[in-house]
């Protein structure tokens, strides 16, 4: 089935400029997500942390979403989408600038604070941009429109991965962890000098990112964006909105599914470096190359899956992708060598359309409640805050359930995909009942 002249346009002409401008934000937070994932491995070596300790990078990063999602939604509902975007860009830039004092202090905690502030800003951006895109046209094409905008998120992600590989991981001192520990005991000043140099390498890209975000702030401040999906000041009915959302079974299930999806995504992309290192002795820099391949597959699959939505329902597609993701994750657990690694890479093809599809399904038909409803779905990104430390604890074990810790840890994302599949199946069944 193709879109005929009588069918509603995915992006009406009156919203085209606003759609393009807001879509650039998807790349901006994609960059932040994926320049940060490899920092778990980098901080582990630089500051001599355990996998569990270094995974706190993800807890701080995604913790900002948990804390700020609902305040961001209330702010946007009280004012405008544009106000929320400007607040988000401001906090995003501030978080990047906090890397300067963090680097000077050479302590892990200030970096965690910088990540937290940064993602408080990202929470504003995602809480505002996703429902804003949904509102820029007919409701029947809303999920397709969001999928199109989300397709540009991986562009920023690939750039972030490349920057992490070539401008951070490749430029870090090659002294391994064991040698650093020995140096810390025998020559603390030499160890401090290496750590200082490595942290300066880490800080540099974030300062450039902060400058780019500051420019984006200026552009959005002067741009004339469409006022759509806004009910105006003074229309807050938080209790009533929350009651309606909690009574909506599809929405509740979407929040749960989104939490498990984000957890699976972050685990698969963050710990591919540890997996490749533990199973094949691969260097961090080379392992990050496979992460880039995974993201290229993710991008390609997202465009393909967006096209497939013309021929199948979002619920059915989500179910099929989740089953595929679960099978590939189990392949990473049980299959040897490069076969297991390629299974881990291939999971990205199945994850490609999950976030926007769950998002669109959960907010379908919510109207103005989508502003606060989107906060629950952004709050669900906290799955990336809780699950990586659990996986890191398993990786820190030499063996778990009779398997190498790095392999056994991927049982966690497999469980996540089962939850997502159940949500896709339940949505499909309810839709079939309603249309019968």
How would you describe this structure to a colleague?
The chain has about 425 residues and is mainly alpha-helical. It has a single domain, classed as Growth Hormone, Chain: A (Up-down Bundle), CATH 1.20.1250.20. It contains 22 helices and two strands. Strands 1-2 form a two-stranded antiparallel sheet. Strand 1 (about 400) and strand 2 form a beta hairpin. Helix 6 packs antiparallel against helix 11 (about 190-220), helix 10 packs across helix 11 (about 190-220) and helix 16 (about 315-335) runs antiparallel to helix 22. The longest helix is centred in the middle third of the chain and has 35 residues, at about 190-220. The mean pLDDT is about 85.
């Amino acid at each position: 089935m193709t879109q005929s002249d009588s069918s509603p346009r995915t992006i009406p002409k009156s919203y085209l400029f606003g759609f393009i401008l807001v879509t650039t934000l998807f790349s901006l937070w994609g960059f932040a997500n994926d320049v940060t994932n490899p920092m778990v491995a980098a901080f582990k070596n630089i500051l001599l942390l355990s996998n569990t300790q270094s995974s706190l990078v993800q807890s701080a990063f995604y913790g900002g979403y948990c804390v700020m999602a609902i305040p961001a939604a209330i702010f946007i509902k009280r004012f405008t989408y544009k106000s929320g975007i400007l607040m988000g860009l401001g906090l995003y830039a501030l978080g990047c600038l906090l890397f300067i004092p963090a680097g000077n202090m050479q302590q892990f905690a200030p970096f965690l604070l910088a990540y937290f502030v940064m993602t408080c800003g990202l929470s504003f951006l995602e809480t505002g941009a996703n429902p804003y895109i949904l509102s820029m046209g007919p409701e029947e094409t809303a999920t397709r429109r969001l999928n199109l905008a989300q397709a540009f998120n991986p562009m920023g992600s690939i750039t972030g991965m490349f920057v992490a590989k070539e401008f951070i991981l490749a430029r870090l001192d090659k002294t391994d962890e064991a040698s650093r520990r020995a140096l810390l005991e025998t020559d603390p000043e030499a160890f401090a000098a290496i750590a200082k140099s490595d942290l300066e390498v880490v800080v540099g890209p974030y300062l450039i990112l902060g400058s780019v975000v500051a420019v984006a702030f200026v552009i959005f401040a002067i741009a004339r964006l469409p006022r759509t999906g806004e009910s105006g000041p003074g229309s807050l009915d938080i209790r009533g909105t929350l009651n309606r959302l909690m009574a909506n079974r599809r929405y509740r299930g979407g929040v749960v599914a989104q939490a498990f999806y984000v957890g699976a995504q972050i685990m698969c992309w963050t710990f591919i470096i540890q997996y490749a290192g533990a199973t094949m002795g691969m260097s961090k820099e080379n392992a990050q190359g496979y992460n880039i391949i995974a993201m290229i597959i993710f991008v390609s699959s997202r465009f393909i899956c967006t096209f497939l939505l013309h021929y199948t329902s979002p619920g059915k597609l989500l179910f099929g992708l989740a089953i595929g993701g679960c099978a590939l994750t189990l392949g990473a657990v049980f299959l040897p060598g490069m076969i297991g690694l390629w299974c881990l890479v291939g999971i990205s093809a199945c994850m490609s359309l999950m976030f926007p599809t769950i998002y669109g399904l959960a907010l379908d038909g919510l109207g103005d409640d989508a502003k606060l409803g989107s906060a629950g779905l952004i709050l669900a990104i906290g799955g990336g805050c809780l699950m990586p430390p659990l996986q890191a604890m398993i990786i820190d074990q030499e063996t778990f359930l009779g398997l190498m810790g790095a392999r056994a840890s991927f049982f966690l994302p497999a469980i996540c995909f089962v939850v997502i599949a159940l949500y896709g199946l339940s949505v499909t069944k309810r839709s079939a009942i309603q249309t019968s």
